[in-house]
Amino acid sequence: MKIALLGYGRMGKEIEKIALQRGHEIVLKVSKDSSYDICKADVAIDFSIPDAAYGNISNCINNNIPVISGTTGWLDHYDAIEKLCLDKEGAFIYASNFSLGVNIFFELNKQLATLMKTVEGYNTSIEEIHHTKKLDAPSGTAITLAEGIIEDSEKTAWKLDGKASENTIPIAAKRIPGVPGTHTISYDSDIDSIEIKHTAHNRQGFALGAVVAAEWLQHRKGVFTMKDVLNIG
Ligand SMILES: NC(=O)C1=CN([C@@H]2O[C@H](COP(=O)(O)OP(=O)(O)OC[C@H]3O[C@@H](n4cnc5c(N)ncnc54)[C@H](O)[C@@H]3O)[C@@H](O)[C@H]2O)C=CC1
Ligand SMILES: O=C(O)C1=N[C@H](C(=O)O)C[C@H](O)C1
């Protein structure tokens, strides 16, 4: 598979390693806002910056190149991308987190939320910890986790770094040098606490998931998620 890397930073470089190991070829590396010929690629993988994701993804869809995006912090434009993809009969996957472990954790989070709905007296909260170079907060993964809880609970929204009201989930975003990504969901009562936690030890899981998703998407049409790729949930 000929892969275009839209974004060649920490993730772009990790994806390159795994793509080469799996027998793919990197035909394009883009690191800044510039014009490029996406048509030489079979598939594009966007891990860029929040301000660039919409332009990169729409360029791929307009040129009929399947595209996966792991960039976070651009979801105000997600509906527009979904519509463009369906109108153009393109192929697109966004995931806030491509790692297999986190996608299992997403399902566990939803199951725990369903269980916790049956008991009283617990306060729900989310904490995410990432390296200090991260541009967005809260992390895309923390937002997906909050949305998973909201799907099946009385919670209606999340709130970053603030005091939450009864119906909102507070998300604390911490930045510590070198941390690839740690997410914890806590349910605290006067009597006890229940916590589930995912800790990424490095970026390999994100990168492997992204390459597997690109392989899966190459000959498909439509807008998909990692649940489709992994056939879970
Ligand atoms: N979904 C997932 O599994 C994961 C998502 N991420 C997300 O991926 C994104 C990238 O993360 P990192 O690689 O750690 O960041 P990074 O800052 O190391 O790399 C981003 C790269 O994008 C480049 N860039 C700037 N403008 C661009 C443009 N117009 N087109 C293409 N590239 C451009 C920058 O020069 C930089 O090299 C972030 O939004 C991060 O939150 C990170 C890890 C996992
Ligand atoms: O910026 C990162 O590094 C990461 N970003 C993603 C997010 O915002 O959830 C995924 C992962 O946690 C690493």
UniProtKB/TrEMBL annotation:
EC number of this enzyme: 1.17.1.8
Enzyme class: oxidoreductase
All residue ranges annotated as the Dihydrodipicolinate reductase N-terminal domain in the record: 1-98
Pathway(s) served: Amino-acid biosynthesis; L-lysine biosynthesis via DAP pathway; (S)-tetrahydrodipicolinate from L-aspartate: step 4/4
Alphabetical UniProt keywords: Amino-acid biosynthesis, Cytoplasm, Diaminopimelate biosynthesis, Lysine biosynthesis, NAD, NADP, Oxidoreductase
The keyword Transcription appears for this protein: no
Gene3D superfamilies per the UniProt record, alphabetical: Dihydrodipicolinate Reductase, domain 2, NAD(P)-binding Rossmann-like Domain
Record GO terms (molecular function): 4-hydroxy-tetrahydrodipicolinate reductase
InterPro entries assigned: DapB_C (IPR022663), DapB_N (IPR000846), DHDPR_bac (IPR023940), NAD(P)-bd_dom_sf (IPR036291)
Positions that bind NAD(+): G70, T71, T72, A95, S96, N97, F98
Tagged with keyword Ribosomal protein: no
Subcellular location: Cytoplasm
Annotated binding of NADP(+), by residue: K32
Main subcellular location of this protein, as a coarse class: cytoplasm
Domain of life (superkingdom): Bacteria
Active-site feature positions: H130, K134
Binding residues annotated for (S)-2,3,4,5-tetrahydrodipicolinate, in chain numbering: H131, G140, T141
Reaction catalysis annotation: (S)-2,3,4,5-tetrahydrodipicolinate + NADP(+) + H2O = (2S,4S)-4-hydroxy-2,3,4,5-tetrahydrodipicolinate + NADPH + H(+); (S)-2,3,4,5-tetrahydrodipicolinate + NAD(+) + H2O = (2S,4S)-4-hydroxy-2,3,4,5-tetrahydrodipicolinate + NADH + H(+)
Complex formation: Homotetramer.
Function (record text): Catalyzes the conversion of 4-hydroxy-tetrahydrodipicolinate (HTPA) to tetrahydrodipicolinate.
HAMAP family for this protein: DapB
Family: Belongs to the DapB family.
Protein name: 4-hydroxy-tetrahydrodipicolinate reductase
UniProt organism field: Asprobacillus argus
